[in-house]
Write a structure and sequence with these properties.
heterodimer; A: alpha+beta; 4 strands; 24% strand; B: 351 residues; alpha+beta; 2 domains; ten-stranded mixed β-sheet; three-stranded antiparallel β-sheet; 25% helix
Chain lengths: 88, 351
């Protein structure tokens, strides 16, 4: 039988927060990111006036393609969501 | 249970077991809670500001604390209309400890909090929250992580908190075994740092090399700083020990900025030993950026990133510059009572 994740774990870039998020079928990582950012309360960490791009990685540091189907992610894995930061 | 409702003084914040933050605010009505959120929480203390007092004494790492709140026993139950909003500000990253709630310990998002307060306000006053009030709540800093709504008419509740264990050290002894280095700081008025920085010789060399490369290429370069946070109970002070400097491989570099993107985080996660925690970021400023003065300074965007993404009390930003024919200049900025301040010294130890 085909295994599809019903929930996955997502953690913040600094490891402070981790949440379990239910998987919405046919949703891509890219589309899920705003909800994950919200669940992790990362939105309040964005620098005023700057749009922050986020990327998602597994625990081995492999970047998950934005087009990946969320339900095909591994429910035993913890995915990290990390921001683009531009110090100047 | 004694919970301070005052913002602690700088002296108090220095001795706080700052891996665990506990704050309680008691509102007589929903608007009081709203007012609390829109004023007190706006203070950008970010970290290490709240001290936890238990039974009239300071709590220490490793302590087990038990709280019990019963209707009629605590001042929060003095009025039947009282609503009690407890915000537990818990830094779970550095905690490596545990939080056990035998009550209904509910994690809420900011949106939940705003909605809840708005609903309470509307129920009582028949008026919606004004946009200003909503905005006031919406900028509650990210440290507000856990909230518990306590209904005085409800059953008693109890909380069991374990103050997280941290690594104990003797900071003076550590200093004696290390070499002190003077840090550069253009925006001066450095305070005595509440967190003393130690770095391995290898990290110091890596920072020097980063500064040199950046100068040669005339492009900013970044790195992740990782290590441990140590606590000296005798002096009630903390030390950050930077043991790894992991280059931000794949960063988009220009002469005036560097973007730490997904590739960098990916490389960082693959490379890190996993023994330490993220202590901050470092990046270089080529001296061409500001030809007539030191390039070691915090730009507005550096400060913004430090405030928003490296907000824990032990985290730092390290800036490196290596003007031609000069020694490498290193500056470190950390938190002091809610302000980002330059530190005036660091200590380098041999591996």
């Amino acid at each position: 039988m085909e295994h599809r994740a019903r929930a996955i774990r997502v953690r913040s870039y600094d490891g402070v927060d981790e949440v379990e998020v239910p998987v919405v079928p046919t949703t891509t990582v890219e589309r899920a990111i705003p909800a994950w950012v919200d669940r992790l309360q990362l939105a309040s960490r964005t620098v005023e006036g700057n749009i922050v791009e986020w990327s998602v990685q597994d625990s081995h540091g492999n970047i998950i393609a934005p087009s990946a189907d969320v339900s095909e992610l591994d429910s035993d894995e913890a995915y990290t969501i990390a921001p683009d930061l531009t110090p100047a | 249970m004694e919970i301070s409702e005052q913002m602690p003084s700088a002296a108090e914040s220095r001795v706080a077991p700052s891996q665990l933050y506990l704050e309680a605010r008691l509102g007589e009505d929903p608007m009081a809670a709203t007012e609390m959120l829109s004023t007190a929480h706006l203070r950008p203390y970010a970290s290490a500001c709240l001290s936890l007092h238990y039974g009239g004494r300071q709590a220490h790492p490793g302590d087990h604390l038990n709280f019990r709140i019963r209707p009629g026993e605590d001042r929060c139950a003095s009025s039947p209309q009282t609503r009690c909003l407890l915000s537990f500000l818990i830094d779970m990253e550095n905690a490596r400890g545990e939080l056990v709630g035998t009550c209904d310990f509910k994690r809420v998002t900011l949106i939940d909090l705003v909605s809840d307060l708005a609903a309470r306000h509307a129920a009582q006053t028949r008026q919606p929250l004004t946009p200003e009030q909503r905005d006031g709540i919406a900028v509650v800093p990210p440290e507000v992580r856990y909230c518990l709504h306590f209904d005085p008419a409800g059953p008693p509740m109890s909380l069991h908190l374990k103050v997280p264990p941290i690594l104990e050290t003797d900071i003076d002894a550590l200093k004696n075994r290390s070499n002190r280095i003077q840090l550069s700081r253009q925006d001066s008025d450095a305070c005595p740092a509440p967190v003393t920085t130690f770095m391995s010789r290898e990290v110091h060399r890596a920072l020097e090399a980063l500064g040199e490369r950046s100068e040669q290429d005339n492009a900013e370069e970044a790195c992740f700083l990782e290590g441990d946070v140590l606590y000296d109970s005798r002096s009630a002070s903390f030390a950050r020990v930077i043991s790894e400097c992991i280059p931000a491989v794949g960063a988009k570099q220009t002469g005036a900025s560097v973007t730490i993107n997904g590739l960098c985080w990916s490389h960082y996660r693959r490379t890190r030993s996993g023994r330490g925690i993220l202590l901050g970021e470092g990046h270089s400023h080529p001296s061409m950026l500001v030809p007539r003065r030191t390039a070691v300074f915090m730009s507005p965007s550096d400060r913004g990133i430090h405030r928003q993404f490296f907000w824990q009390h032990f985290q730092c930003t390290c800036i490196v510059s290596k003007p031609a024919a000069q020694e490498v200049q290193i500056g470190i900025w950390g938190w002091y009572n809610g302000f980002i301040i330059p530190e005036h010294e660091a200590f380098v130890f041999d591996d």
